[in-house]
Amino acid sequence: MKKALIVGAGKGGTALLKIFEQAATMEVAAVVDRNDRAPGLELAKTMNIPTGSDWRPFLTNDIDIVIEATGEKDVFEQIRKKRQKNTVVIPGEVAYIIAELVEEKEALIATLKSETARRDLIFNSTHDGMIVVDEFAYITHMNDSAAFMIEVDKHQAIGKHILEIIPTSGLPRVLKTKQIEFHQELELENGRKIITTRIPMVGESGKLLGALAVFKDVTEVMQLAEEVTNLKEIRMMLEAIIHSSEEAISVVDEHGNGILINPAYTRLTGLSEEEVIGKPATADIAEGESMHMQVLKTRKPVRGVRMKVGPKNRDVIVNVAPIIVDGALKGSVGVIHDVSEIQRLTNELNRARQIIRTLEAKYSFADIIGTSEEMMVAIEQAKLAAKTPVTILLRGESGTGKELFAHAIHNASDRKYNKFIRVNCAAISESLLESELFGYEEGAFSGAKRGGKRGLFEEANNGSIFLDEIGELSANTQAKLLRVLQEREIVRVGGTKPIPINVRVIAATNVNLEKAIAAGTFREDLYYRLNRMPIHIPPLRARKQDIPALCQHLIHKLNQDYGRNVEGLTDEAIRYLSTYDWPGNVRELENVLGRAMIFMKFNETQMDVHHIPPLQMPRDKQIKEVVGREVLRPLEEMLEQYEAQIIDAALRQCRGNKTATAKMLGISIRNLYYKLEKYGLAKKYMQ
């Protein structure tokens, strides 16, 4: 009987102990492991087998086999040096293979005792080749892996003698000796080399049932080598991609030393590979801290950090991210952007946005702030008008938001995907306005462009044109505009051929057009064309309940403009603002809030009364002198109030008949409807 010493009582050593305990020709002399809690030591103690933490005292002259199951190369070499010449030392790798094969054997034996289908499933699912023979060496089972390695049809092989399929097989010998043969090398007829373990299968009664061969193809080792080669190819491919990128890229290892840069990095920083590779990550920094080192420390990415790099102090923005593989930090990768290039692209974007803003409406009805009855009436009228192609006249004082309404009307119409052209009639000189609106032909005047120029009406074709300050148009331009509204066509300056257009006109004015007609400065026929859908936008003094919401909206806008974080106004500040009549309307309110924000400290979040500059009416608005019990107000305001009273009295006298009322007052029925809207009497006398 041979004596065996097992060094290592882990998984492999425990498996060997179980096997040797069952083998009649093998006696386990001792089990050794430095870990006194190893499972093999506990099992050996239950079997009354000597145990210990050092193998040297147990390596006596009568030991035939030493199983080194620790897997440590040093231990294996030490045992080989200390062993006797007749002592065989089996390395730890074999022990683990044996343990694996034994586990597979035990699983197979258990499977053979269960259902045939389940046994076949497990038998064929293993990657190792398996062949089972009966007690006469005839093949009873062969899995797919074995058939693949041997290159036979397993269905034809089953039932044949093992030597017919594998002439050099050792299974007949195992059937005779009933001994396990571990880690035997065998070369098949097709040239494959395999490592096989042959195990006799003995029933509970001790009867020989057959034998099992489990073998591995050593070509797997070669496949692993090929995989390593593939990994190298993948790395080379990734490096090629990085080098071809136009983005400046740098990579450092886990210690912060440079391992890779690309040509774009060299072009941007002026640093070569010799100056970066193998050097600390700080080698390229001219001003600032190393983001590579910060990322390696925190394991978190950073973005948009500005610094200066290279000998030319290039101003850059860097983004750096950690490289983490299977939870382990392997380094970091940084992408560097040239700020000057970003600035150039930003400028181009801003220019594009500026162009787009001149052609598109920016606001919608959601941007109009106000819940007062006067404002809601104006908004509802505008929404109704937006759904029709009718010409719209926006009336209201300066700063009430007429342009805001024009934008919203265009965006709510079916023309919203076409151009929205804005024209301030008062901002363009009379000599240029006509050619700007209607365009000109080549040679129309000195300095005219070759080929002529399209006018703003042509540019706005199928869209909308907003004519602000329409009351400032000259008589000649008024006549041309009237033709556009009547005939839906324009004639360029210096041209004779009419050009048809499809444009919705939205006009706006803060001038009293009726007085302008009386004074002879505005055409009455043009007035009737423009005044087809008049919308009166109330002044801020007529809707002071909207001041809190307006203030909140304007403060949010001013925060973005000034880089502040003001949250709102105090109640006292709101009350103070509500006592003022706001002759400049919303534009003046925005101006006052902007000045107040400038005077606030950066840590203040609430605007109070002391931040707001003193509010005083202009001198021509400060008529507050008391005569008797009546407070004098601006003449225009008192005249409008008196006019509203007269119209109301006339309508009552005519029992709401608007035609009779207009005839009594000596005004047109259209003018009467406008005044009813203006003074809020329309709902009172609806028919």
Automatic annotation (TrEMBL):
The cross-references to InterPro entries, in alphabetical order and at most eight, read:
AAA+_ATPase, AAA_lid_NorR, Homeodomain-like_sf, HTH_Fis, NAD(P)-bd_dom_sf, P-loop_NTPase, PAS, PAS-assoc_C
Domain PAC as annotated: residue spans:
178-230
Query: What GO terms describe the biological role, i.e. biological process, of this protein?
Result: regulation of DNA-templated transcription
Q: Which NCBIfam families match?
A: sensory_box
The UniProt record lists the PAS domain at: 115-189, 230-290
Which of UniProt's keywords are assigned here? ATP-binding, DNA-binding, Nucleotide-binding, Transcription, Transcription regulation
Q: Return one GO MF term.
A: ATP binding
Q: Which organism is it from?
A: Anoxybacteroides tepidamans
Show the taxonomic lineage: Bacteria, Bacillati, Bacillota, Bacilli, Bacillales
Q: What is this protein called?
A: PAS domain S-box-containing protein
Family matches, as PROSITE patterns: PAC (PS50113), PAS (PS50112), SIGMA54_INTERACT_1 (PS00675), SIGMA54_INTERACT_2 (PS00676), SIGMA54_INTERACT_3 (PS00688), SIGMA54_INTERACT_4 (PS50045)
Domain Sigma-54 factor interaction as annotated: residue spans: 368-598
Q: Which SUPFAM superfamilies match?
A: Homeodomain-like (SSF46689), NAD(P)-binding Rossmann-fold domains (SSF51735), P-loop containing nucleoside triphosphate hydrolases (SSF52540), PYP-like sensor domain (PAS domain) (SSF55785)
Per the record's keyword annotation, is Repressor included, yes or no?
Answer: no
Q: Does the keyword ATP-binding apply?
A: yes
